[in-house]
Amino acid sequence: MDTITINNDKQSLHNVRLGKDVKIYNFVNAYGCTIGDGTKVGTFVEIQKGATIGQNCKISSHTFICEGVHIANNVFIGHNVTFINDKFPQATNEDGSMQTEEDWSCIETHVGEGASIGSSATILCGVRIGKKAIVGAGSVVTRDVPDNAVVAGNPARLMKYFNHILI
Predict the structure, then answer these.
(1) What are phi and psi of 62, to 5 degrees?
(2) Angle at CA of residue 36, ends 32 and 40, nearest 5°
(3) What is the pLDDT of residues 1-55, one digit of tens each?
(4) Number of structural domains, the chain?
(5) Which is it for the CA torsion 98, 123, 52, 57, positive or negative?
(6) In a 10 Å sphere around its CB, with 0-12 CB exposed, 13-18 middle and 19+ buried, how is residue 165 labelled?
(7) Which residues, 6+ apart, have CB-to-CB distance to 42 below 8 Å?
(8) Residue 42: which domain range?
(9) Within a domain: 98
(10) pLDDT tens digits, one per residue of 75-132
(11) SS3 for 103?
(12) How many CA atoms does the CB half-sphere of 156 hold within 13 Å?
């Protein structure tokens, strides 16, 4: 895996570890993250430091992957998906000073192998989305999603279990 830095009018990639055959489209901002072999990252995506994306994933446009998000192999992330890494975000401390990295704790989120997250879903921090789980478009995921489960709604609720049969 190579570590690259590119900064031009179409991309800003700083200290990004890239696997082989990764495709990153224009207007992507990524820094201090890892992106696995064969993954595609659409336009207007931000991937923050410490985030990891596995092999053969598809990250659709306008998605925000923050620090503390770990995405396994073969995951589909729809358009405009937002991950959150802080349960109680604040701009300032009690004394009115701006918060810094030392003033909060990053809470990790894990997305299991083969999962699919629909467009405009919001994934709160500290959850685990199971292997081959499906999160419906527009859902707000507030708790763990089991393997092979289909969830949807706000908050996301279990709709059914799905058997993935590859033909």
Answers:
(1) 65, 25
(2) 95
(3) 778 777 777 778 889 999 999 999 999 999 999 999 999 999 999 999 999 999 9
(4) 1
(5) negative
(6) exposed
(7) 25, 28, 58, 59, 60, 61, 62, 63, 79
(8) 2-87+106-161
(9) no
(10) 999 999 999 999 989 999 999 999 998 888 999 999 999 999 999 999 999 999 999 9
(11) helix
(12) 28
Cα–Cα distance between 56 and 58 in angstroms, integer?
7
Total residues found in the chain within this entry: 167
Q: What is the pTM of this model?
A: 0.92
Residue 94 falls inside a structural domain: no
Q: Residue 71 sits in a domain of what CATH number?
A: 2.160.10.10
Taking the C-alpha atoms of residue 82 and residue 123, their distance in angstroms, rounded to an integer, is 6
d(CA 47, CA 16) in angstroms, rounded, equals 10
Is position 100 within any domain?
Answer: no
Q: Is residue 133 part of a domain?
A: yes
